[in-house]
Amino acid sequence: MARAGSSDCSTIETSQDVPGRTLEVPQGPAFIVNRMGQAEWARELARTILEEPLPRRWAHSQGVAAKAESLVPILGEEADLLIAAAWLHDIGYAPDLVDTGFHPLDGARYLRDVVEADGRLCRLVAHHTCAVNEARNRDLFDALTSEFGQERPELVEALTYCDMTTGPDGVPLDVTERLAEIHSRYGPEHLVSRSITASTPYILSAVRTVQAALEQSQTA
Ligand SMILES: [Fe+2]
């Protein structure tokens, strides 16, 4: 899959693992992941975290995961990782996980520190949908980028495609409808709206790139 063009959020070069917060650690999932595959494990973890307190986010996550499953033809073996990230990308919204209030960072830290999840999965969640722009607006850019490096740009684009073509209730949406929905939900002055505006060129480019790759795979 070709990379998106100049509007690229994926410019962080290195990953640096730093000591995390001290949190209550539940049963580690590593042995389950090995037996079940990461996507199945991620679905159950996301269900546990989101279904009851945030049913709308849970519905959205199910829609995003369905989109990720549709990318198997272009992602091959990495589809399992992408689907797992799709399930878990918004867990940072869950009340029990909120710390900084910036959901990509809170979700990724939970995955890293509490669940001891795969580093690639943590990085995808940390940087999903051009999170660096919102991190800048929240004065969390240094925290985000020093703790979590970028993942392979094609996978970052793929997760952006899945998130930005799925509405808040899990229904598939055109990317322009999705962008409009975010602006209307938050209002023009909100930090999230301003961050999405900054990210829009990258988002549109990522969606176009993934759609082109999908179309190509269907005609091949
Ligand atoms: Fe999302």
TrEMBL record:
The protein's name: Metal-dependent phosphohydrolase, HD subdomain protein
Region (Disordered): 1-23
Domain of life assignment: Bacteria
Gene3D superfamilies: Hypothetical protein af1432 (1.10.3210.10)
TM regions (residue ranges): none
Composition skew (Polar residues), residue ranges: 7-17
Organism: Planobispora rosea
Ranges of residues in domain HD: 57-142
Matches recorded under InterPro entries: HD/PDEase_dom (IPR003607), HD_domain (IPR006674)
Database matches in SUPFAM superfamilies: HD-domain/PDEase-like
